[in-house]
Amino acid sequence: MIIQSLLDTDLYKFTMMQAVLHQYPGAIVQYRFKCRTPGIDLAQFIDQINAEIDHLCRLRFSAEELDYLASLRYMKKDFIDFLGLFRLDRKYIDLRPSATVPGEIALDITGPWLHTILFEVPLLAIINEVWFRNTSQADFAEGERRLAAKTALLRDAPGFENCRIADYGSRRRYSRAWHGHMLPLIRQQLGSQFVGTSNVHFARIYGMTPHGTMAHEWLQAFQALGPRLIDSQSVALESWAREYRGDLGIALSDVVGLEAFLRDFDMYFCKLFDGIRHDSGDPFVWGDRIIEHLKANKTDPLSKVLVFSDGLNIAKVMKLYDYFRGRCQVAFGVGTHLTNDLGPTPLNIVIKMIRCNGQPVAKLSDSPGKSMCDDPGYLAYLRQVFNLPPEPAA
What we know:
alpha/beta
């Protein structure tokens, strides 16, 4: 089966889950799947996807896996004890062929946030792998050739010795087997330039550093949990700081667009958080604005890290590193370009939170076409509250 460990997910699912346990254990949420790649007939494989989900919901954390999580400095004992009793429950998943678009699937996850938060990454990995094993034939030799060319580009370029990348590719990987095969190769080929992976399972078995802090859903949920919508980002960041007390201090900047984020990310947050992550929009413009904002708030940009993670390849990593080095600290999370580059075209699939406690929530992306919400009226209201222009056409 595709998923063989509940650790086979991104670290930030656990860091957010722990905060949910401590602060919002009663919150009820809804997530929705979307395939942004046109012409993909996933419905023909729905029985295979269902079988994989059934298997996923039979998994439990092993004692060794719990011991590993407990070894991470920011994981608390009560959370580890909770995970010892945890299982994913099939009743929270509604998977069916789309009633409106032939070939597409409709997939919703609805239930307590605490009990549904771990579904996203393994479900995306399952859908990806089911698609590729039915529509293409893996060529690991080709993948190794492509990987070697990428790592050589970074490794052999003068002046890039301190450029660091991590693997962020769990959700859109070609397969679990390729993901597990690729990671030791990257470490061997890049040495200290490769700093770890977002995937907790592979971090554990390969002795790598797991990477991750928060995802969009954390800030989205506060659109329904916060006292006022206009304060949702500030309350989300305050709640995160209350949970981790200065640890895991990378803020996500694009849930309601960069300009609205900068209005909320005041001097207090500039000094409190270790850095900021980019995930949509022009990364060069974004970085310039962040550096300008830090300086305006009496914060030395060289003391902060800018994390880039949006659709990166090695060539783009090198351009960004060359542009920003000496002006701030920089780090890079590379996903699909590492874990799904064997020849077939990768799928662009996502699962996003669309409701919390019965209220719509949304991400207003800095990239056209990436916003996701099932309530157009709420999207318009959200833009009005945060004083944002209408979304440009994709």
